[in-house]
Design goal:
Helix content is 9%, strand content 31%. The N and C termini lie far apart (98 Å). The chain is mainly beta and 147 residues long.
Length: 147
Amino acid sequence: MAIVHWDPFREMEDLLDKYSRTPIKSLLRKRDDGLLSSDWMPTMDIKENKDSYLIKAELPGVEKENVNISIEDGVLTIKGEKKTEKEEKDDKTHRVECSYGSFFRSFTLPREVKSDQIEASYKDGILKLKIPKSEESKPKQIEVKIK
């Protein structure tokens, strides 16, 4: 019988490493209460300028065909899937840190957007959305006359 050295700190380090990469990942699994879940969460930037909102999503390794963008009741949802690579039977995996599986992110849009004029582009794993603002939401300057 071989003697195995047990290191509890190594197990704790592995556990913390697993969840530090995607801090919300453990909370988003399908639960018994029927909540929807995601296997991983891509990072996103949301910016605003005077004419539009800009969303940039990093989706490395996700094919364009596996990305779906929808709007329903003022909620923008980005769904997709990053498929696992085909493993050869002779390969031996030592560590897996890349995230695979399905994902979704949802954002409530302001009322003052033109959701029918959203522009989307996808290149090199970067999804960019440009959501134009409606005219009434753009800032207006009113001249005040002093008497």
